[in-house]
Amino acid sequence: xxxxxxxxxxxxxxxxxxxxxxxxxxxxxxxxxxxxxxxxxxxxxxxxxxxxxxxxxxxxxxxxxxxxxxxxxxxxxxxxxxxxxxxxxxxxxxxxxxxxxxxxxxxxxxxxxxxxxxxxxxxxxxxxxxxxxxxxxxxxxxxxxxxxxxxxxxxxxxxxxxxxxxxxxxxxxxxxxxxxxxxxxxxxxxxxxxxxxxxxxxxxxxxxxxxxxxxxxxxxxxxxxxxxxxxxxxxxxxxxxxxxxxxxxxxxxxxxxxxxxxxxxxxxxxxxxxxxxxxxxxxxxxxxxxxxxxxxxxxxxxxxxxxxxxxxxxxxxxxxxxxxxxxxxxxxxxxxxxxxxxxxxxxxxxxxxxxxxxxxxxxxxxxxxxxxxxxxxxxxxxxxxxxxxxxxxxxxxxxxxxxxxxxxxxxxxxxxxxxxxxxxxxxxxxxxxxxxxxxxxxxxxxxxxxxxxxxxxx
Length: 458
Description:
Layout: H1 2-20, E1 29-30, H2 33-44, E2 51-52, E3 65-66, H3 80-104, H4 106-112, H5 116-128, H6 131-138, H7 142-158, E4 169-170, E5 177-178, H8 183-186, H9 190-205, H10 215-223, H11 247-274, H12 282-302, E6 309-310, H13 312-321, H14 326-340, H15 343-347, H16 354-357, H17 370-386, H18 396-418, H19 428-438, H20 441-455
Antiparallel strand pairs: 1-6, 2-3, 4-5
Helix pairs in contact: 1-12, 1-14, 2-3, 2-11, 2-19, 3-11, 3-12, 4-12, 5-11, 5-17, 5-18, 5-20, 6-17, 7-9, 7-17, 11-13, 11-19, 13-17, 18-20
């Protein structure tokens, strides 16, 4: 609960900076999945048991399967606290690198040179790479997950133009009232989420078993119990010890920064397109990356295992509801700061059913979790596909670039997840650097499509 509270506190501060000084897009900042994959890679080399993440073939951390470490450089010493401090050191380094990329203008330059042949596969793979985690979350209760998906699709698509009379807004001229807001579409995420949570609460109150959790998840839920968490604790830097800056943390931190920067640029483009806003200027991208770097610096100093980055799920939810406003996002940022100062309240978020998360797209914690991911990441896939209209997709060159980039982005992480010991350069930090990058599909897709688009003639 306390770790979650610290993360929420850093995300709230970063969101305020992003919406006021950064890109100024209505984007919530969250611990990005592109942070968690390198963090798990680094942690696996610091623990006595090498944790092989079989689902690192995508950008979301999924089911972990422990096995004996096959690599010769895996250590058998070190405590959990030291491991967390080293991961926090990597987050701190990533914040510094992101800040440098934003100040130097590299982010804006890259965004300006990303055409439809780069954006289409990159945005598509962001959504496609989440399917395993969505299925894992939904599997705790497919009925709950499907109910949430059904309600979200019905409210946002079939009843998207429905306007309720009691939700009329007064007009400035004449004093008349006119229903100017499609109510059900605006609340197409909130209403299904609240309704499904109420159903789960009723089932739990009636002692009707509805959620199937394996032993590992059950133990995690028990370990994260909020009964003994304090009601009020203001986080401060160094409370759990200062971040450890080692060569391994430096290498993983650089990989974190590269992966998250690419994800954030894609999120800026995604949000702007879904809200039908003008293309974001390069200097706005640079400012956005600078504020994300500051947020990651704060997160690292607070001892969290993940930095802050623009939320793909939030951008997609904004596209579904068409309710993108900075004030509303800043209110949510304030709520995150308040929850960050109360570990007891923050721990209540862990009680959200996993099936709900998988259907819409809340930050990685709850059958409702599965429903959230199903709905929001589907929007990312569709948005990526829509960019093909701006390219000659009948061209053999373009067909190869898209197919090769997307296929390799799914193949390479799966290969390395099954046999991480195959990547051995003889120097552990370099191994961790390449492993952290090559496990992230969005990096592979973005790098390969950008390289081929700018080097292959046609």
